[in-house]
Specification:
- By secondary structure, the protein is of the alpha+beta class.
- It folds into 5 domains: 150 residues, Jelly Rolls, CATH 2.60.120; 108 residues, Sandwich (Immunoglobulin-like); 261 residues, TIM Barrel (Alpha-Beta Barrel), CATH 3.20.20.80; 102 residues, Immunoglobulin-like (Sandwich); 106 residues, Immunoglobulin-like.
- It is built from 14 helices and 47 strands.
- The two termini are 27 Å apart.
- This is Glycoside hydrolase family 2 TIM barrel-domain containing protein.
- Belongs to the glycosyl hydrolase 2 family.
- Keywords: Glycosidase, Hydrolase.
Length: 810
């Protein structure tokens, strides 16, 4: 079948009912190119505190339309329209007729539209999408992933009908099994010849075969090839070598499938092995939004995200809490990022009034099928997660449903492992509610009540997770899994080795502030496969769960989860929404043993004298800067991260002392000093010998605006993007973190400004504006090519010379 991009030529508008249309009370259609997020283009509304989950963006209903033609020569062929994702409750109409729907916002779905078409004429397709009180995070609205028009001959290879497995691998050879579904839409018995050719990473053929396939009228048949590949190049995170399978019918239909040759093994004594080699998962939980792009899943954005996470030391991602996009899976394959792909955030128990739980009983099997069909040939996928923090996990009926979902996944794909992100506290929520009510009746004199629960949330979740109550209530939920996924239950890791000797564990969601102790548990216990931090990348919605909060002796308040408007992001994660690494990212890299040099970060001086009181998802409010205008002569705290034995801090050549660091001190040392501009240097020592150093310098003189694109040329393709980093520095290139100002962007040539913003977690300015204010001296512009040609990006800022960035789309 021939798959053609269906992303261009769309229009969108807020949906009006037919009576309003008759009265002329409708919004105008405006052109868009998919993937597109309509929610991001709405004005935020801070009047309703309940909208903090979706970053104070309102919901709504939007409709999309597109005209397209299918030639008369295609009459009698199979004509499909495929959507990789529409959020949410999609309704699709072709030439005014209902063609199909999909309630879940994260499933790919395919509609056979042939019966509705006018061949040789113009056709119209309309898609409705809606969102509102149905998500715990920023979801976006609309056709936010790619769309495709698919045309196949009457006898054809089924869409996603090629499945490649590698059941037998050794050093000399690998067996590659190719199963192909051939469909026959005619009324006659048909026999065709199926050819399969496997090529290696260099493009040369490594194995091939042919077989006749007879298919009954209106039916389908599965043809299988077992091909031997000599001296195979194996896929692994360290060497992500990909092969290609070209499957061809003698009628001309062909399908190309990318795959990797690799083996998976799992047991409680040797843990996870890939190609026989032990692997620990250095994992990042990620949401699906792309920062200033909103929910729009443009291919280059997914690729860049994987590249940055990989460079920061992660080797695995967990999709939270919905299936990943195809584009991200393809990037994970290419860059060696392992994947835990997750199905749902809810089953039958609502977490929001109108969420997917309303549709789950009728649709879950089809949505599981869609996820597995999407993932099957991706070597990066090693784990399927059947849910996240499902309240039913602590009940018999929940365990029964979990078993049904797990067995459904295994029936579809027995080559991967099944897990479930279980939160022990939610599994015993009835008991927790009783405890909280008791705490509310007992004031602070009785230990703090609810206030104490909020400020000590991490300890309480871990305590509950390790309790006998959770042990008994989750025993069956964990028993149906290959790997017990534990959210904030690291207190169980060691004890479960004795309680459940055959249980294999992965930390599906963990606090970033515990990575040092968690990683020691991972490395010390073979049955613990790895750690997935919440979160690898900051995201829109769940506003402020990781924000810095402070108390003073005169104003003591507990940490709170939600932040008021205009907070926009969770302000949590190793990477901010522009793709810039935060201090916690370098700390984690040191804990993983991947960075030998120390790292310097400085707590913002304006908070000195207060007590940090953030949630367990909050890192200290520190940045890698020694530029603090107005703080001269005032106290400041400097953080140094290192795995060395000792670290020394030097300020303008003077030693401020040498203190222990390393694992016994949680890889962290703090120095309190007085701010003075100049040079700050951290020197690490082991056995009295220097092992590395890190330096920060103060920016001086005039502010210089700098702009640099990630690449000099991009594809003339709407799935590509140019990322332009905007930075305020001094003449020597030192970042000017204390001189934020508004920057403006103009784009000339065959491209559009797709998004502009900063990492400021509480900004009001929309990302669709051509101007934004820098945050800590940084901002990001994203440019999307529309056709071949030369592109000129001009950047300006008050008091700075303009910068011109040339770009070529080809």
């Amino acid at each position: 079948m021939i798959r053609t991009s269906f992303n261009s030529g769309w229009e969108t508008r807020p949906k009006s009912n037919p009576f309003a249309e008759l009265g002329g009370r409708t919004a105008a259609w405006r052109p868009v190119t998919l993937p597109h997020d309509a929610m991001l283009e709405q004005d935020r509304d801070g009047s309703d505190p309940e909208r903090g989950a979706t970053a104070y963006f309102p919901g709504g209903v939007f409709e999309y339309r597109k005209t397209f033609s299918v030639p008369e020569a295609d009459r009698g062929k199979r004509v499909l329209v495929e959507f990789e994702g529409v959020y949410r409750s999609a309704m699709v109409y072709v030439n005014g007729a209902y063609a199909g729907q999909r309630p879940y916002g994260y499933s790919q779905f395919v509609l056979d539209v042939g019966q509705f078409l006018r061949y040789g004429q113009e056709n119209e397709i309309r898609v409705e999408a809606r969102a509102g009180q149905d998500s715990r995070w920023y979801s976006g609205i609309g056709i936010y992933r790619d769309a495709w028009l698919v045309v196949g001959d009457p006898v054809h290879i089924a869409l996603d009908g090629v499945r490649v497995t590698t059941p037998d691998i050794d050093a000399d050879a690998a067996v590659v099994e190719v199963a192909v579904v051939v469909e026959n839409d005619t009324r006659e018995l048909r026999t065709v010849t199926l050819s399969v050719d496997l090529s290696g990473p260099d493009g040369r053929s490594v194995a091939s075969g042919t077989t006749p396939v007879t298919v009954g009228p209106g039916g389908s048949a599965v043809a299988r090839h077992r091909l031997l590949v000599h001296r195979p190049a194996l896929w692994s995170p360290e060497s992500p070598t990909l092969h290609t399978c070209l499957t061809t019918l003698d009628g001309g239909d062909a399908q190309t499938t990318t795959f990797g040759i690799r083996s998976l093994q799992l047991d409680p004594e040797r843990g996870l092995r890939i190609n026989g080699q032990p692997v620990k998962l250095r994992g990042a939980c990620v949401h699906h939004d792309n920062g200033v792009l909103g929910a729009a899943t443009i291919g280059r954005a997914e690729e860049r995200r994987v590249q940055i996470l990989r460079a920061a030391g992660f080797n695995a991602v967990r999709s939270s809490h919905h299936p990943l996009s195809r584009a991200m899976l393809e990037a994970c394959d290419r860059f060696g990022m392992l994947v835990m792909d997750e199905t749902f955030d809810m089953w039958t128990s609502n977490k929001n009034p109108y969420d997917y739980a309303l549709d789950f009983p009728e649709w879950w099997e089809r949505d599981v099928e869609a996820m597995v069909a999407k993932d099957y040939n991706h070597p990066s996928v090693i784990l399927y997660s059947i849910g996240n923090e499902i309240p039913e996990n602590g009940s018999p009926t929940g365990a029964l449903l979990g078993r049904q979902i797990a067995e459904k996944v295994r029936a579809l794909d027995p080559t991967r492992y099944v897990t479930n992100g279980v939160n022990g506290m939610l599994a015993v929520m009835d008991e927790v509610r009783a405890m909280m009510q008791s705490g509310a009746e007992n004031t602070d004199s009785a230990g703090g009540g609810i206030n104490t629960m909020m400020t000590q949330l991490g300890d309480i979740m871990n305590m509950l997770g390790g309790s006998d109550l959770v042990t008994s209530k989750t025993a069956e939920a964990f028993g149906v899994l290959d790997v017990a996924g534990m959210n904030y239950m690291d207190g169980r890791y060691a004890s479960d080795q004795e309680l459940f000797p055959n249980r294999i564990i992965v930390g599906t969601e963990t606090f970033p502030t515990r990575i040092d102790t968690n990683w020691r548990l991972v490395t010390d216990h073979a049955h613990v496969l790895g750690d997935f931090t919440w979160t690898g990348w900051d995201y829109l919605g769940e506003v402020g769960i990781g924000r810095p909060q402070y108390t003073t002796p005169d104003a003591v308040a507990p940490a709170s989860l939600a932040a008021p408007y205009p907070w926009l992001t969770a302000d949590a994660g190793d990477i901010d929404i522009t793709g810039h690494r935060r201090p916690v990212s370098y700390y984690r890299e040191i804990v993983f043993g991947l960075r030998a040099e120390p790292y310097l970060a400085v707590q913002r001086p304006e908070h000195h004298g207060t007590t940090f009181a953030g949630t367990p998802w909050a890192w200290s409010d520190s940045i890698p800067s020694w530029t603090w205008p107005g703080a001269e002569g005032k106290p400041v705290v400097v953080e140094v991260y290192s795995d060395a034995e000792q670290v020394e801090l030097q300020l303008n050549g003077r030693s401020l002392g040498r203190v222990p660091v390393g694992e016994k001190n949680r890889f962290r040392a703090e120095f309190e000093t007085t701010y003075e501009p100049g040079d700050l240097v951290a020197v690490a020592y082991r056995g009295g010998e220097e092992t590395g150093r890190c330096a920060l310098s103060s920016a001086t003189g005039a502010v210089v605006l700098r702009a640099a694109a990630d690449r000099a040329s991009v594809r003339a393709d709407h799935r590509d993007l140019a990322y332009v980093d905007l930075t305020l520095t001094d003449a020597h290139g030192t970042p000017y973190t204390g001189a934020d100002r508004t920057v403006r962007i103009t784009v000339d040539g065959p491209a559009v400004l797709q998004g502009l913003g900063s990492a400021d977690p509480r900004v009001e300015r929309p990302f669709r504006s051509p101007e934004t204010r820098t945050y800590d001296g940084r901002a990001l512009a994203i440019v999307r090519p529309t056709a071949p040609g030369e592109i000129t990006i001009r950047v300006s800022a008050e008091g700075c010379a303009d910068v011109v960035v040339p770009l070529v789309a080809e």
